[in-house]
Structure formats: structure tokens, C-alpha cells
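Methods: holo model generation. Sequences were used as deposited, without trimming of termini or removal of tags, and paired with ligand SMILES retrieved from the corresponding compound records. Each pair was processed once, and we did not select among multiple samples. The sequence and 5,10-Methenyltetrahydrofolate SMILES for this entry were:
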Amino acid sequence: MTAEIINGKELSMELKQSMKEEVALLHKQNIKPHLSVVLVGNNPASRSYVNGKKRASEEIGMSSEIIELPESISQNELLDVISQLNKDKRVHGILVQLPLPKHIDVQEIIEAINPKKDVDGFHPINIGRMMTGQDTFLSCTPFGIIQMLHSRNIPIAGQHAVIIGRSNIVGKPVGQLLLNENATVTYCHSKTKDMKSITKLADILIVAVGRANMIDKDYIKDGAVVIDVGINRLDDGSLTGDVDFDSASEKASYITPVPKGVGPMTITMLLQNTIKAAKGMVK
Ligand SMILES: Nc1nc(=O)c2c([nH]1)NC[C@@H]1CN(c3ccc(C(=O)N[C@@H](CCC(=O)O)C(=O)O)cc3)C=[N+]21
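and the model returned the structure below.
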């Protein structure tokens, strides 16, 4: 079998086209969706992602700002910035780019964001709502993955989804969303024994481990759907996923590339969440 590629960049462009129309309609009602992105320090990867978010906002006619803060900012100063954004009626969405410097208590920062403005879907209230299947802001990468599956009418109910990775921002929530859609979900992680024997059972394999090209055809059942969440920068500057694309493509029915896969969808779901926030849809 040669896998069909699910191109996240193309799907994003389609979705952004209809969001652009929606933003224009909101403008007519005097609602101007606005995203504030907080960037602490000088991590080049973070800067590049944050610029991508700003660019995508502009593409759909949505306003956004990047609030740049020094690496040396204190916990209290950062909490003050968030408190200002929480109060600012112009601001519908707040995103604090991760990772944060080591001296910052990340969890306290996330919990300081008003859940109604938490367009990343990282606040424990929104995670709890997601777990209980209520309408809320879904975290952007898991939400984007589900959209990619839906775009090809890939069945989820009754399918065995195996997630490699259990981070709070990708692995755990994507498993939960798949469970909400009635998949049978198994998590693998660094302590898992004989991982191949488990991943080979997967109808849908989600790979979020953070190791370049780790997953090849030996981990994959014939006809499986393979979603690659990895973003690894190689020494030559190129990007590659956690999946060995050419090898996996021999067995998969559908596969997502890196770049132009899950990454662009993450940004697109952020825009969708910001529009949702502007409409006041999450209480
Ligand atoms: N609070 C917070 N929210 C996030 O959503 C968040 C974060 N922190 N920290 C880092 C991760 C990573 N992330 C990406 C988004 C888009 C691409 C993306 O568009 N990638 C392009 C390539 C971009 C390039 O060439 O560098 C692609 O895969 O085609 C990648 C990674 C969001 N994250």
C-alpha cells in the first residue's frame, strides 16, 4: 500500500478561507476578534512559531499582537501582564508561548489565564470540560489532528487508536478527544514494554515522542492511519517528524507529512478558538 498524504497546509488554507468570511461578518457586528500572544525570552523556535501565529491571524483579517517580554521577567511581573490581558475587553484570546524560562512556574501562569480567553485550551477548567465532553476550547494540536481525520472521513468510532507520547499538551488530550469519539485508546510512553507489539495493533497511530524518524514501518499495521506530531530540526536546518515518512508510507493508508502536516493545523485551530472566544461561546 502507498499512503495518501493528508496535507495540513492545504486543509488549513481551506479552513482559513471560511474563517476569513466569518471574521468579516463579525466586523460588521462590531466584534473584532483579537489574539494576544505572550512571548518570553529569545528562543528562536518560539519566535518563529509566534510569528506564524501572527501571520495566520492577519491572513484571515483578525487582529493580533505579540507581547515580547525579557527572559529575566519575574513570576509576579508575568502574572501582572496576564491580569491586564484578562481585564482588557479588546482581548478575546490569550496565548502564553511555551516553553517558559526555568524560574517560572508554568502551571500557575496557565491557571491565571481567564478560562474564557484560554484559546490554547490548557487551563485545568477547560481540560476538565474536554474530559467530560462539554463544549470548550480544545487544545489546538489535538483539535487539528481530529479535523485532519474528519477531512478524509476516517472512521474513529470502534477503531483502535494508539498514542505514543503522554504530554499534557498533545498525547493526553488527543487520546481523550479520540475516546470522546468512541475510539478504543491505548497510550504508549517511555516506560512501555515491547512498544511495537502494541503499535502494530493500531488502526490510528498518533506519534508525539520528539525523536526524529523513530517510527518506521516495523511499528505499523498495514492500512493504518499515521499522524506525525513531531517537529525535529536537523543539523542542516530542515524539519522532520518523529515518523520515517518513506518507510511508514509503504504500510500506512493515510499519513501526515512534516512540515505541512499537523503544525499548520495547530495554528488554524488557534484562530478558530479565538473566533469562538470573540463570539462569547465559551462561558
Ligand atoms: N502556548 C503554546 N501553544 C502552542 O500551540 C505551542 C506552544 N505554546 N509552544 C510550541 C508548540 C509548537 N507549535 C507549533 C505550531 C505551528 C507549527 C508549524 O506551523 N510548523 C510548520 C513549519 C514551520 C517552520 O518551518 O518552522 C509545519 O509543520 O509545516 C509548528 C509548531 C505550537 N506550539
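The longest strand covers residues 34-40.
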